[in-house]
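Report of the visiting student (M.T.), summer placement. My assignment was to run the structure pipeline on a short list of targets and document each run. The first record concerns Phospholipid-transporting ATPase.
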Amino acid sequence: MPSGNEALNPMTEMAQKSSDQEPNAKIRQSGGFEVNMGAEALEFRHITAGLTSKTSGDLTAEPKRPAGLHGPATGPGLLSNHVVTSMYTAWSFAPKFLVKSFSRVANCYFLMICVLQTFPSVSITHGKPTTVVPLMFILTIAAMKEINEDLARHRADDEENNTMTRVLGSDGKYSSEPIPKKWSDVKVGDIVEVRNREPIPADIVLLETSHPEGQCQIMTANLDGETNLKTMVAHKDMVSDSCDKSVMGGYGGEIVCELPNNRLLNFEGTYTRPDGEKVSLGPKNVLLRGVVLRQTEWARGIVAYTGKETKIQMNAAEPPNKVSSVMKLSNDLTKLMFVVDICFCLMAACVNASILGTENAKNSCYLWGNCDYIVAMDPDAANNKIPDSTDSLLIFFTHILIFTNFIPISLLVTIDMVKLGQARMLEFDLDMYHEIKDHSGEIAEIPLSVKRSDLNEELGQVRHIFSDKTGTLTCNIMDFRKCSINGNSYGLGTTAIGLSFLKRNNKPIPAVPPKPADEPDTPNVNFIDPAFSKIMKDPSHPEYKFCCEFFLSLALNHDVLPEENKTGEVVYSASSPDEAALVYAAKHFGFFFKGTENGGKMVIGKKSPDGSEEDVTYEVLNFLEFNSDRKRSSVILKEPGTGKIFLFCKGADNVMKKRMTARQRPDDLMKKTEAHLNQYVDDGLRTLLVGKTYVENSFYETWKKKFAAAENSLQDRDAKRMEVMDLIEKDFQLMGVTAIEDKLQDGVGDALTNFRGANIKVWMLTGDKVDTAINIGYSCSLLDTGMTLLRACGEDNEMDLDHDKVPTEPAIMKKIDELLAVAREGDNEKALVVDTAALSAIMLYSKEMELNEVCKLCKSVICARVTPRQKASIVDMVRYADPNVVTLSIGDGANDVPMIQTAHIGVGIHGLEGRQAVNNSDYAIGQFRFLRKLLLVHGRWNYRRTCKVCLYMFYKNVCYVVPQFLFGLYCMMSGQPIYHDFIYQMYNTMYTATPIVIYGIMDRDVDKNTALKNPWLYFDGQANTFMSRSIFFKWVAEGIVHASVCFFVPVALYQYGIFDGQGYNLDLFTGIGTFTNMLAVIVASGRLYCETGYFNYPHLYIARGGCASVFFEGMVSFTGSGCTWQLISFGLWWAMLKMISDFGTKGIMGTYFFEVGGTFPTLAHDYGLYMVMIWGMAFVVLWSFCLILGQDLFGTQLRANIAMRMKREEEKLQRVEGGGVNVDGMLGDDNNI
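After the run finished, the structure tokens were exported:
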């Protein structure tokens, strides 16, 4: 049981969220479907047990409903249980994949290029669509990825659909012996039998089980990730001896229930037995598809929902689409480059038109092939048409083909490969490996898991972290530490949070006596108090009776299940670790919950002070469950012997106090208890108030009828139940307070301190009381004593509240103005604390922007008493108020899922509250401390790598395409290409493909220790240091400069052409084009090398950090992302040149490569080729030195270089005494971001 507003069952909030509507809405959710307010009749599902034909007709009549709060679109009802989650079939793959692939603008662009290449009038490839080859290569890789992923879905579907179950009644026939049947053949209305350790094939309504009381235990790990067992029960009146056994074996009846919806923990319906008796059905009477039957021999039920209409399938929605800010910018830049491409083509067409319009061009007969000497040799040449300005439209499309590579065809596939490699590097990091014990005591191995690699670079730009507390900052392993009973506090010592509080307030730290030798060792109990031990051993002590009654209430008021683990030890399985800790505490002090018996009776083993033990049975009349709206749970019992009816209740203090009348809560007792409660809050303990009341038999009988009527209601059942519960949960006698410790995880303080140093604002969102949250904030270093604490809390009584205890609009505005004024004063850091009342007012009156202004001035923010739905609202508020920041949410429970999915990045923690958070996250880790390295090291590395990959992909294509434009100036922009098309296409797909992928996966500018020691390095991503529109244009400008070098150097060296051994002048492709191509490969590869900061040697790792000597060291690097891959790329260029030279002299390939046929020997022996090569390498060396001297591309001092200089200076200082490093002087103005 959690304290304050924390949810006992994390799934409850999510299940109920779907039914929440505005109070004044004309349409309201009921049972998961929409109904008109005031309507007398609703649409329901009608199921006749065992009669498939009748049920099928009723399903056909169900209304169609579009997708909405109830889940995906449904109706009419589905009879089949066949499930398909795969996307493709053998017949649908081709059309679906092509539609998906060509929904990408880049693929459509290159398809257009292929089409244009087939028109001879504009083609530069003799009508051959050569771009098809690289396009098909890219589509093939994408198709293999899609096929691989979908095959896994097909295998999972086949395995599930072919799983066998047992059917007793179907199609009007009943068999006393269960008949095996595939899951896919099960239909709505079938009567099925499931046996121990078998999964449930569909959503079924329980008829009966092997347990005399109709109980069965299930494990819901496949549904919500929780491995603890839960108890479900068949209604005691479902099967009666009065039922006609000839009708489906006594099971024949009709179910009327809600239409299919996605509310996992809600079900409303009635069952009409064959004898006409009606039975109400609720969520405890339903077994959902996917859960596993445990510790029960068999269970029988009627199938209510099948296939896609089962709860688990209705909740299997696609995760929200998330795109990183870098990729959004990259997509925008791609569109921009398309515009640049069009502009170049228009310029070429205009230049061509202006030249062709001149008399000089018209009289240049040698250009058009109609000179007299040519006509003399070929009379048909006289008919050659002289182009005019109207042909410039064709020139425009020709240049579209020539400038194809302005947009990198391999950009998307390269980034996908890079991110896949980055994801594998993340998962291989042993520093983020964790081990945890599960409920059965076995060790579970938990490495980091990447579920969405598309966001790798987004990890390097986070500004806000929204963190749950329980299980995220804390271990979620509860220990019973203290309690207050009848105004007396018991339990010595303090917690880590309490120690921090005492030190902060200069208070003495109390000594803790050793644990008594005769004290038993009980799981989840860390209670030391010799005085209390004496009380429990002395029945004559005046406090003995109160203490026994207190722990008896803990042993009875719960929904815990006892089970044996593999070692034979009895352990408690609970929906919340708080609940299990309280039951363990009751066992520790002599009240051992052993289980339940027939008739809903609970067996408690009472241990006497003399060591004897007796079993006492309590008849449970009703259990009123906990949820996040009620914030309490109660059990109504009949006292053994006397038959009196009494009620135990425990819950949050703000709820319980209102339910204790002044007559039944003496002021002195309440004051003492509140003092103890505040003391426990200072220790950071999770507290619950415990109360008791006796109920008159006559009142209970009246109440019982009202409660039964509410449970049988098919409209607003939950609201009616809660209203009736309120009638009996009142006039409590205060018994005491429980105090449970949830220890902080290791490394949380260091991580939060680093995040503050990295300019990351951390929000702690918790359901605890304000003071508890503040104390936890201090203990985990979220707050420190030098901070100014700003408070906006409704419980401070500083703001006027309305009747709902929410601050009024003038009050909240006045408070925000006061906070802004204080936040702007002084230079010390600020922290903000707000509670649920203030947040409710801020959202009610749309003051999110004003609150965000306060938050911008604070280093940390604590939100206390918040509900799970408010967590997601807070994240959404920050995203709306500041759209340019990147947010990250981290949590471990199902109640954190909305928050995780709302943020830009969602991180799930493997905890004790199931796997819902992990399953719905983008990244999953074992503990919060791993988030430090994930962001500050891998996040920053991946941000830098991805930015450089995007920029380099555009740069190298500009460097390669611009020579085509420059060459056009020499040939009237006639559309003559400078490169052979095959070599042209290989530039992106082969020559320069591998080095950038290796770079994007492996490169780093600082090592991990430097990144962790200097969290201010993280400013790079927040300030967009590595990629912005201005940086992009600088790279493009650099590409144009380098392209000019690549073109004009060969032109200057070979202005008269290249001659072979027979004195013939080689054509453009093998002359200027080949040399320009080679120089572009050298320069582009060398430019990437200039960006490389990490060179991997067999036994030595060096980061460049501005050191010029490493440039030459890298030239002889044998492995890693240094120049090795660039050298391999250059070797590929030579190999491809020789290959096409050989192809051009023989066979059918000679018709395509005839221009360069047999030219390789000539080129290989031409000294000018090597001069061009040497000149290109010299240019790379020169440019590298320019970059080193400039620190960055255009003079901005890189923080990484500062950090590396600091590291080298610190290494020097280690060898001498004294000295220091002037960090502020090195940072300069870059520290002020």
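The mean pLDDT is 77. Residues 81 and 1199 are 59 Å apart (CA to CA). I thank the supervising group for their guidance throughout the placement.
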